[in-house]
Amino acid sequence: MVSPGRPGERRETEREFWRRIAEGKSSDEAARLCGMAQAPGSRLFRQGGGMPTISLAPPTGRYLSFPEREEIALLRASGTSMREIARKLGRAPSTISRELRRNVATRNGKLEYRASVAHWKSEFFARRPKPAKLTENQRLREYVEERLAGKITLADGSPVQGPTVLFTGRKHGPRKSRRWGKAWSPEQISNRLKFDFPDDESMRISHEAIYQSLYVQGRGALKRELIACLRTGRALRVPRERTRRRGKKYITEEVMISERPAEAEDRAVPGHWEGDLILGLERSAIGTLVERNTRFTMLLHLPPMEGHGKAPPVKGGPALTGHGAEAVRDAIAKQINTLPEQLRRTLTWDQGTEMAQHAQVRIDTGMKVYFCDPQSPWQRGSNENTNGLLRQYFPKGTDLKKHSAKDLEAVAFALNGRPRKTLGWKTPAEALDEHLCSLE
């Protein structure tokens, strides 16, 4: 046979690599744990589009394994007959005969059986490359490309070009122009084919096949630059376990929302707060605090720190944008400490890095701080609702740095003077005042 080039990694090694990736490991770490170099691991991850291209199920034992081939090589070198080798391995003699006939290697002009070369040759011949459906069906490929990256048009059919964007092979940055296209998702394309071609079974493709044509190198059906037309725009697929493990080092089981007292959940007792940031242009931000029982709102003024925009940021230094951990810590302590101790029970926040110093917040205010589960905004429902109300005064895409502390105080005063149905048409200020009077 003509040599196909340098042998790649063995299937067992590839399976172990992808199992590590499925556990949430990075490509470099997974390669190290599998005994691979960093470069082959990164190449394997990139060529697979971030997802495994082989089955992760363990071999069934139907085919010879590498340890069995090593045993065959040792026994053959010692002069053991094929039937004796078969008996020791628990295989049929015909299996050993076929193995020695097909997978021998030429060395110094002689045919010798070597386990590494035999295993490589068996895996090479076992490959069954199947051409992608989009490669064979040009009509289907044109349909998919049109729905992914087709030009958008006005109602009269005239096309609209949109911004000119160069594909760099990486995900688009924040607040940068993206390529305009119809941008149907692969699932929408796959299911729409049944409506547009109800009687043509050749016009069928699964959404996973479209994703693989975009992400897996070597499929050759769709141009890789079309990934810019997907909603995420990411260059590689992200294993699910990796997204689940994007936890913060400063968050432990003791500060998760599951450990929050039951009295905070039923809203029966005032003093339990929810907090978050609303963001604007140029990383400007305003902090929001909402009391769960009375819906009373307080706003945190987070102006940019000295030197913001004048010098490059220092790695490991404070966030000069004004909503770093230090700035948020000080702003919360300044506002919360104006309240009596009975109204300082707990604070629930999302898992943002602005609360990395939550331990110091607890010391400064006496409040216990808890964090929501990832991607669970409903666990801070009052705060999310209030943030929506605040967008009337601080719309998305506007610069929030222009608002002074007095401006925020005025907005909070207006919001706390608005009657709420959930409070029996009382205002949050009136509900909080009643509670303060009862404390006195």
Q: What structural class do you assign from the helix and strand content?
A: alpha/beta
* Spatial sequence of strands, sheet with the most strands: 7-6-5-8-9
Please tell me the CATH architecture of the largest domain by its name. 2-Layer Sandwich
- Roughly what is the average pLDDT, rounded to an integer? 84
Number of domain units = 3
Query: What's the tally of helices?
Result: 18
Radius of gyration of CA atoms, rounded to a whole number: 31 Å
Q: What is the string of SSEs from the N terminus onward?
A: HHHHHHEEHHHEEHHHHEEEHEHEHHH
What is the CATH third-level topology name of the largest domain? Nucleotidyltransferase, domain 5
CATH superfamily of the largest domain: Ribonuclease H-like superfamily/Ribonuclease H
Sketch the major β-sheet: 5 strands, mixed
Distance between the termini: 93 Å
Which blocks of ≥5 consecutive residues have pLDDT under 50?
none
Portion in helices: 25-40%
Give the class-level CATH name of the largest domain: Alpha Beta
Q: How many β-strands, per DSSP?
A: 9
Strand content: 5-15%
The coarse overall form would be elongated
Molecular structure report:
It is built from 18 helices and nine strands. The strands form three sheets. It has a five-stranded mixed β-sheet with strand order 7-6-5-8-9, with helices on both faces. With 440 residues, the protein is α/β, with parallel strands linked by helices. Helix 10 (186-196) packs across helix 11 (207-215). The mean pLDDT is 84. The protein has helices at 11-22, 27-33, 38-47, 66-77, 82-89, 93-102, 115-126, 133-136, 138-149, 186-196, 207-215, 240-244, 262-265, 325-336, 358-365, 381-390, 405-416, 428-439, and strands spanning 105-107, 110-112, 152-153, 159-160, 272-279, 285-291, 297-301, 346-349, 368-371. The protein folds into three domains: 11-126, no CATH class; 133-241, no CATH class; 253-439, Ribonuclease H-like superfamily/Ribonuclease H (Nucleotidyltransferase, domain 5, 2-Layer Sandwich), CATH 3.30.420.10. A hairpin with a 5-residue loop joins strand 3 (152-153) and strand 4.
